[in-house]
Amino acid sequence: MASAAPPAAAGAGRRIVVAVDEGEESAHALAWCLANVVSPAGGDTLVLVHARRPRPVYAAMDSAGIASPEGIYRLQEARIAHRRIDPSAFAGYMMASDVLASVERHAQAVSAAAVDKAKRLCAEHPHVAVETLVESGDPRDVICDAAEKVGADLLVMGSHGYGFIQRAFLGSVSNHCAQNCKCPVLIVKRPKE
């Protein structure tokens, strides 16, 4: 009977996915992973995954500045189906291209800063191979998909430590990943200061 994944070669390291963002929680989780999970003998590969939130989509506006019912319907339909929303699909989408380009440049700069910060932490551990993956989309889906795509042996991520009410309104990326990832998930809480 064939196994679902090929067995690891003798001496082959693990593929450890670490979710990184611009917050201190993910930096703490990465530092903790480097100190406590990664083999000091080498051979492990860290895959730094950053989920760049897609730019916001504003309701399609008609020429009078009133939200188009058709545009709102398509927006709701796309959200229900959990699809990425393509703003160009909305009739009458009114946003200056230079504003959209500026928003996109800012999102890329935030992503680059988060990944660079994580790479600097990893540079202190030359025995660890580091790969990066930046995807656009809902962080919950991006992280779970990336862990499956790279064949992760472990997913490490930080926790913002939201209480019950905040989780109810904002959702919990770490909880979603713990419930839906196909690999083990290690959630590292940052100590209270």
UniProtKB/TrEMBL annotation:
Domain UspA stretches: 14-189
PANTHER family to which the protein is assigned, alphabetical: ADENINE NUCLEOTIDE ALPHA HYDROLASES-LIKE SUPERFAMILY PROTEIN, OS05G0357525 PROTEIN
Protein name from the UniProt record: UspA domain-containing protein
UniProt-listed InterPro entries: Rossmann-like_a/b/a_fold, Universal_stress_UspA, UspA
Lineage, opening ranks: Eukaryota, Viridiplantae, Streptophyta, Embryophyta, Tracheophyta
Pfam family, one: Usp
Domain of life, source organism: Eukaryota
